[in-house]
Amino acid sequence: MNYLNINTKNFSNLVNNRRNLKNAKMSSVHDQNKITWIRFSDNATNPFKYSKYSAGYALYASEDVLIQQRGHITAPTDIGVKVPSGHYGRIAPCSRFTLNNNTDIRAGVIDADYSGKIEIIIFNHSDVDIKVKKGDPIAQIIFERIFNETEKPDVIRHSDETQNEIARGSGGSGGFGSTGGFN
Fold first, then answer.
1. Which of 3, 50, 98, 182 is 20 to 30 A from 157, alpha carbon to alpha carbon?
2. DSSP-assigned beta bridge partners for residue 60
3. Which of 102, 114, 117 is CA-nearest to residue 47?
């Protein structure tokens, strides 16, 4: 198993081109301030940011797979990740793959304490089988900051006073689009 450490505070030097990321130094040490990629096999392709402004890292299929028409599969990546504390990784569609193949990527959450391989759930909404080749970009992972509360959260009873406190924001209380004027 190989590890690839990327400092989340200063990764722009690694995203200048794909060769730099492919040749990035492997390490066996995990730093809590870094994203650490874990290669479970030689079939894995290192996750890659296409530009320093990209929100996510591309994830690639580690083997050829066939998605039958109107079917779904779990595609392997042979990549794992150690997520920095206070963050999680969100699996999202890769827009080119999704548009070109009429597919959808089911959301996934990679918690900071998850230590397994990342697999991508792909739904084929087309009337033809889709062949995914080893090394094809199939999804992306976006790291987002989360609120980790160590104490049990407060639960309060609703009243006019609490509603006024909550209503300080500009959002509505009608649900399903109530903040965007769709009612």
1. 182
2. 137
3. 117
Split into its structural domains, the chain has a count of 1
Range of the domain at 133: 2-169
For the ranges 18-22, 28-32, 179-183, the lowest mean pLDDT is seen at 18-22
- Asked if the structure places residue 180 within a domain, the reply is no
Chain-centre distance of CA 182, in angstroms?
30
* Residue 166 to residue 134: CA distance in whole angstroms: 50
Question: Is 23's pLDDT higher than 60?
Answer: no
Q: Does 183 fall in a domain?
A: no
What pTM value is reported for the model?
0.71
11-22 CB burial, b ≥16 within 10 A, e <16: beebbeeeeebe
